[in-house]
Design a protein that fits this description.
Layout lengths: L2 H13 L1 E2 L9 H9 L3 E4 L7 H14 L4 E4 L20 H7 L2 H17 L4 E2 L24 H17 L3 E7 L20 H8 L1 H8 L4 E4 L17 H11 L5 E3 L6 H4 L4 H11 L4 E2 L7 H16 L5 H27 L8 H9 L1 E4 L11 E5 L16 H7 L4 E5 L4 H9 L4 E5 L6 H13 L4 E4 L11 E4 L5 H11 L3
Parallel strand pairs: 1-8, 2-3, 3-4, 4-5, 5-6, 6-7, 10-11, 10-12, 12-13, 13-14
Antiparallel strand pairs: 9-14
Helix pairs in contact: 1-12, 1-13, 4-14, 5-6, 6-8, 11-12, 14-18, 15-18, 16-17
């Protein structure tokens, strides 16, 4: 191999990587790699302090490579990175699906995209097009527009359209659909046992809508679907990526893997071999960096891809094609940013709160009266899945404290919550905040006890509202974003 070819090969291997990095400033090694061919970086909560800091960080990256793709996992709702410390200004997909106004979904996505673009982010790993067909799903839930296929499809298309109108590339996920799983692929490899006909009618329909709407990227799922490929997960499967996504669905944009350090891949194939197999199967960009985020991981993956080409395991033309698709997306973001800047289409800056208010569903009984005195708020908190993380505050206590000063709060994670709450609340009204009561028996039992002793207890469900409404006042917010908490607090306080 000539020196030129070797240099080209190394640059292409770097180009297809989407790594993360530590800190709120770009480390020297990252800037150096951008000069050597790295074309994308991913931002996570650890990289975010303020909008001004993010803008300075992305400017630092673009000073090294003007066309760099800066990606982020900013779904809005429960999954936020830009507002990781405060909670999101936008409700998530499930709330938007509950409203079922595609114009509203488009506006929310456009305003979220505008804020990302203002911070220098031009690639969003969103929206989730997964149909939440399994109520026990531990990782999708409120990240889905809902359990109805057609609803998920029309809102996925609206979200893609709105986000890209702001000049930010959409990355629709998790192909071919992560909604029918009872296992989190961050932890293990889920298996979906349904036939191709069910997949075609249910799970693939929102992705067809995303493709028709022009989604610039699609993210793969680390799931095993035997009806499509009995041996390899979708991320590593040629039948799924080449035959189905490229062939049958006719998709020609960028195919991005979900995080390769997730245990569904890392614990079964390893990240180096997994990355080689993903590229060979048809993926174009390797996402890594949620947990592994140092220079060594970039070096390891670059070298694994170069070695795979030199040994014949990965065709050089396949790597070159993948790298060109990354560069093509970078070119699109530059032209899209110009178009967005001159667009006359403007969205209200408070569209997120307006949407959250519309998403609330309220069930009252005669026992309820609006609160005029500060209540005692107890949050029954499940273990957060890794996609959501445990850094972001949630609930209604902070918003209620603004409306009813003196509001106190406590958080519990087991059945001891009931007696502790009764003891601490005294004569104050109790507001109990839950998240997916239907998936957590201890939450249901805690509510049984509280409502038996204090029938005037208010219940706020901030997950998927599968359990029957109960309490003197039951508020389903369809998500735990900060604005969802605000919308619920306004109702509790009669405002």
């Amino acid at each position: 191999m000539t020196t030129f070819a070797s240099d080209t090969l190394t640059r292409d291997a770097l180009t297809v990587l989407q790594p993360g990095f530590p800190g709120t400033e770009a480390p020297d090694w990252l800037l150096r790699r951008l000069g050597e061919g790295l074309a994308s970086v991913g931002l996570f909560g650890r990289n975010i302090a303020t909008p001004e800091q993010v803008a300075a960080l992305t400017a630092q990256l673009r000073a090294e490579r003007e066309d760099v793709l800066v990606a982020i996992d900013e779904e809005g709702g429960d999954v936020t990175r830009l507002e990781v410390r405060t909670g999101s200004s936008f409700p998530g997909n499930h709330a938007l699906g509950a409203v079922d106004d595609t114009g509203l979904t488009r506006q929310v996505a456009q305003e979220l995209g505008r804020r990302l673009a203002a911070s220098g982010v031009n690639f969003n790993w969103a929206p989730s097009a997964d149909v939440n067909s399994n109520p026990a799903n531990p990782v999708i839930g409120v990240r889905s527009f809902g359990a109805d296929t057609d609803l998920a499809a029309r809102h996925t298309a609206a979200y893609v359209t709105g986000l890209q109108a702001a000049g930010v590339a959409a990355c629709t996920k998790h192909f071919p659909g992560h909604g029918d799983t009872a296992i989190d692929s961050h932890e293990a490899l889920p298996r979906i046992e349904v036939g191709r006909d069910v997949l075609a009618k249910r799970d693939l329909t929102p992705f067809r809508a995303a493709i028709a709407a022009g989604s610039r990227a699609i993210m793969t799922a680390h799931i095993l679907v035997p009806a499509l490929d009995p041996t390899r997960p979708a991320t590593l499967s040629r039948p799924v990526l080449r035959d189905l996504l490229r062939g049958e669905l006719g998709y020609d944009g960028l195919i991005v893997t979900d995080g390769m350090e997730m245990q569904a891949i890392a614990a079964t194939y390893g990240i180096e071999r997994g990355s080689v197999l993903a590229l060979a199967a048809g993926a174009d960009a390797i996402c890594v960096g949620g947990g592994l985020n140092d220079e060594n991981i970039v070096r390891r993956l670059r070298d694994a891809l170069v070695t795979a080409v030199r040994t014949g395991e990965l065709p050089e033309e396949r790597l070159a094609d993948a790298a060109e698709r990354v560069r093509a997306l970078a070119r699109w973001t530059r032209s899209a940013a110009v178009s967005a800047a001159v667009s006359e289409d403007r969205v209200p800056s408070d569209i997120g709160l307006l949407a959250a208010r519309r998403a609330v569903r309220v069930t009252r009984t005669d026992a309820h009266t609006p609160l005029t005195e500060p209540p005692y708020v107890v949050a029954l908190s499940p273990v957060a899945n890794i996609a959501v993380g445990d850094e972001t505050p949630w609930g209604v206590a902070a918003e209620l404290a603004g409306l009813l000063p003196g509001t106190e709060t406590a958080t519990h994670t087991d059945e001891s919550a009931a007696q502790a709450t009764l003891d601490a609340a005294g004569t104050r009204r109790i507001v109990t905040v839950v998240r997916d009561e239907h998936r957590h028996e201890w939450m249901a039992k805690t509510l049984d006890t509280l409502l038996s002793e204090r029938p005037d207890t208010i219940v706020v469900e901030m997950g998927v509202p599968q359990s029957p409404p109960r309490g003197a006042l039951h508020i389903a917010t369809h998500g735990a974003a900060r604005v969802c908490g605000r919308a619920a607090a306004e109702i509790i306080a009669g405002q």
